[in-house]
Structure formats: C-alpha cells, structure tokens
Amino acid sequence: MTDTPTEQRRRAPSMDAEQRRGMIVRAALPLVAEYGGAVTTRQIARAAGIGEGTIFRVFADKDAVLDACVAEALRPERTLEQLAAIPLTRPLPDRLVEAAAVLRAHLDRLAALLGALHATNGRAGARRTGAAPDRAAGALPVRRALAELMEPERELLRLPPDRLASLLLGLLFAGAGEEHPPSPAELVDVLLHGALTTTPEGRP
C-alpha cells in the first residue's frame, strides 16, 4: 500500500528551523523565477512536500520567503564550489571557458529571479532587489577563485591573475542583459588574445 503525502510528511526526518528554511527556499527558487511575486505559499508548500502552515512557522509571511530567495540567489557558495572543482591540470583556456560558463549560468539564474520579481511586484519588487546583499561583496570571493584558476600561468600573463579575473567578471556582467551575449569561449578568447587578429604594426 502506498503512503499518502500526509504520511510521508510525518515520516520525514526532523529539521531545525534553519534547515527547514533552507529546504523551503530551495523549493521556492524555481517557482519565484517562473511566477515572481505572484507565486503562492500553497505552490511553495506543494513543491517542498510540506503543509502550507509549516512555511509560516519559519517565515513571517510570503514577502519574507521572497527576500530569502533573493539572498540565496546572491550567495556565491554554489558557484565557488563549481569553480574549485575545475582541475588546474587542464589548459588555461579550457579552465576559463568552464569557469565563464559556470558564472554565466549563475548570472542567468539571478537575472531570471530578479526580473520575475520586478515584473510582478513593480515598485515593491524594485525595493526588494535594492535591499538585497551587496553584489560587489559577493563578487570578491568569486574573483579570488577565478584568479586561483590562472595562478599556474602567472609568469606567462601580461597582468596579475586578480586583474584578469576582474576583467573577465566585467565582461560577463556587461553581457548579462543582452539577448545574445558573447559565449564563454568568445569572452575567454578576447581576454587571453585580445580583439585584434594582428598588432597595429601588422605583426601576428
């Protein structure tokens, strides 16, 4: 006999408040990206496999859930783990293309979430976005992780790894809002080899 959803919820491992908050936010993130502020707590509860009342035991209201989703989307930990997993034994261009793809995916997820909130909440959505944690602060550990990926080639680089990491992040941020942004491979090619096929003097 198959357990009912209610029975499955009763048998779920117990969680403390912080763990439950995290579980709810993870379930809510894709829904917020799709529906923005129009998402309901009933939809979130269904996605999390919990009763709707459970949400209000750890969040004051739906706005608190939305704020937590924005904060979670801005957290760099997941991106840092993916960057740290890139082997330093791979060629530098391959390392940077993979890193740029990881960062592009992060920016796309963030843009989808904030765009949906702004579209459905209007001024309230803009205030929520503005109240989010400082993006520059979150970019600092990402920049350091990018620099570490370039560290083995430090002596071959025209600029220090941290400067090149800042340039790559700048290129990624600049293209984030474009309909057809440059691909990670294109960005890395320009970063490493410049925009010209030859020097102004005609030398390769």
From TrEMBL:
Superkingdom in the source lineage: Bacteria
The entry's keywords: DNA-binding, Transcription, Transcription regulation
InterPro entries, A to Z: Homeodomain-like_sf, HTH-type_TetR-like_transc_reg, HTH_TetR
DNA-binding region in chain numbering: 40-59
GO molecular function, one term: transcription cis-regulatory region binding
Name of the featured protein: TetR family transcriptional regulator
Pfam families: TetR_N
Species of provenance: Kitasatospora griseola
Annotated HTH tetR-type domain residues: 18-77
